[in-house]
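Researcher: Last one for today. Full complex below.
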Amino acid sequence: MQRWIIHVDMDAFFAAVEQRDDPSLRGRPVIVGGVGRRGVVSTASYEARRFGVHSAMPMSEARRLCPQGVFIPGNHGKYERVAAAIRAILAAFSPLVEPLSLDEAFLDVTGMEWLYDDPKDIAAAIKQRISDELSLTASAGVAPNKFLAKLASDWGKPDGLVVVRPGEVAAFLRAMPISRLWGAGEKTTAQLKGIGINTIGQLAGADDALLHRHFGQAADDMRRLARGEDDRPVVPEHEPKSLGNEITFAEDLRTRDEIGTCLLALSQKVSRRLRQSGYAGRTVTVKIRFGSFRTITRSRTLGEPTLLGDTIYETARAIMAGVELTEGVRLLGVTLSNLQVYGGQTSLFAVDEDKKLKISVAVDRLKDKFGEGAVTRGRLLIPKKE
DNA sequence: TCTGGGGTCCTAGGACCC
DNA sequence: TCTGGGGTCCTAGGACCC
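Model: Here's the assembly. Have a good evening.
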């Protein structure tokens, strides 16, 4: 049976939500992102893109390019609520919906001809409902596989609807810039251009030995994508592999004391998210980015999985003790991996660990009820230098 | 006023075991 | 008394995605 995949991608999602909710922002260049020092652009409205502003650009540069822009820190909680509403709409069209991020998803609509004559009609109906119910525009791509559907949704942005039928694949890909190849970022794109491959069509016809020399095993995957072949299924649920938090400081941290305080806060944040999501982890990784942007990770694997802030913090602290501090610290991160579902059974933990867990859960309840600031470590109340 | 924060996947070396 | 070999786990780094 012919597979049909739809990729739905919201247009300038964060900025569009802000413009929807504040009419004074409509028609103006809106830039959502980190507004402090060292922030980057998360989403630029189409008005702002005309000034050359784009995602991942340092905010300082965005301000230079577009001084008349409206700069907004954004409201992640709100975007998550809108995203949930979008997913609810998508779920009405297929049981096979795979969210890629807050604002993107794949749907497998294979075999729905009995409901719709053409898969294009499904995509149109999705766009219509998103517009009617949420006052936002989405772009959609309809194609025989994920890779082509994603390229197709991008091709029509904003408010686009592009269908790539089986017979049109080669023509669709022929002149497509090589940078659009899934998995080809800055480095790979530069490497490909270095051997004279500038379009996906050129990659499809490139010399096999040449490709293998440069990309080894990955050459075969690249080639398949370039020919429009992609049999990856749409998978609705993924088990998480890791869960972490990191923070970039406005000013580099210089003392072990400040670093320790930050590791404690990060450990507690991660611990709380683990408990909320029902996972425990066995490997603690500390990430450190120095003032020079040199970045290292150091990890330690425990004998038993944990989701306790204290255990995560003690491990992070021990890891940090082994790191030489020759320059200021720009970023700290704490991540847990080697995750497994924590079903609540105490057999997973030693007895005193279980006691601590009960206290943590009680603290969680207080925070749920009275807000995140209701209960905190004395140490975290020391005002931080901003 | 260079370079966020959430992730995934891959590679490669070393330890360790049989 | 010149160094096999496969499997698994751990660690570190890096490319990539949104």
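Residues 33-34, 37-42, 56-61, 63, 101, 183, 217-218, 238, 240-248, 293, 331, 333, 335 of chain A lie near DNA strand B (CB under 10 Å from a C1'). The longest helix of chain A spans residues 256-277.
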